[in-house]
């Protein structure tokens, strides 16, 4: 699952909207919406993100948060370490090889550490 997919699912469930109904209302297939929610599709385009924001009447910070989640939701990323140190390349490779073995709390701890060390 991706951050965007998790948020869309939460919004949908909180409002009692089925995936089938939302897909119909947004004029996309249920399969596409399901793939987005489950992280089996790449990050959604900005137009679709705004459609979803409008569908759930999200404004200001909530709409911006949804856009940010979409930007951080590509399930297959490439980390370019050209012109970076050997340690940067090592870190990127180590994370790609071992991320599947990290428990959720460790992932949250790493995210917090990165966000506090390197603000966006």
> What is the alpha-carbon Rg in Å?
17 Å
Tally the beta strands: 0
First-last Cα distance:
23 Å
Give the second-level CATH assignment, the architecture of the largest domain: Orthogonal Bundle
The named CATH superfamily of the largest domain: lambda repressor-like DNA-binding domains
| Helix coverage percent | 55-70%
Task: Write down the CATH topology of the largest domain.
Answer: 434 Repressor (Amino-terminal Domain)
Q: What best-fitting shape do the alpha-carbon axes yield?
A: elongated
Q: Which H/E pattern describes the elements?
A: HHHHHHH
Mean pLDDT across the residues is 94
If helices are DSSP runs of H or I spanning 4 or more residues, what is the number of helices?
A: 7
Alpha-beta classification? mainly alpha
Total discrete domains: 2
**Biggest sheet overview:** none
Protein described:
The chain is an all-alpha fold and 120 residues long. It has 2 domains: 3-71, lambda repressor-like DNA-binding domains (434 Repressor (Amino-terminal Domain), Orthogonal Bundle), CATH 1.10.260; 86-117. It is 64% helix and 0% strand. It has helices spanning 3-14, 19-26, 30-37, 46-55, 60-71, 86-98, 104-117. Helix 1 packs across helix 5 (60-71) and helix 4 (46-55) runs antiparallel to helix 5 (60-71). The protein is elongated and about 50 Å long. The two termini are 23 Å apart. The mean pLDDT is 94.
Task: Indicate the topology.
Layout: H1 3-14, H2 19-26, H3 30-37, H4 46-55, H5 60-71, H6 86-98, H7 104-117
């Amino acid at each position: 699952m991706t951050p965007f997919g998790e948020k869309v699912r939460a919004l949908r469930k909180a409002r009692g909207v089925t995936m089938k109904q939302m897909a119909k209302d947004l004029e996309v297939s249920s399969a596409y919406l399901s793939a987005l929610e489950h992280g089996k599709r790449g990050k959604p385009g900005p137009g679709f993100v705004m459609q979803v924001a409008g569908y759930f009447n999200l404004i200001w910070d909530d709409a911006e948060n949804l856009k940010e989640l979409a930007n951080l939701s590509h399930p297959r990323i490439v980390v370019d370490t050209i012109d970076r140190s050997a340690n940067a390349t090592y870190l990127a490779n180590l994370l790609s090889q071992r991320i599947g073995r990290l428990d959720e709390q460790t992932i949250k701890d790493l995210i917090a550490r990165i966000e506090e060390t390197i603000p966006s």
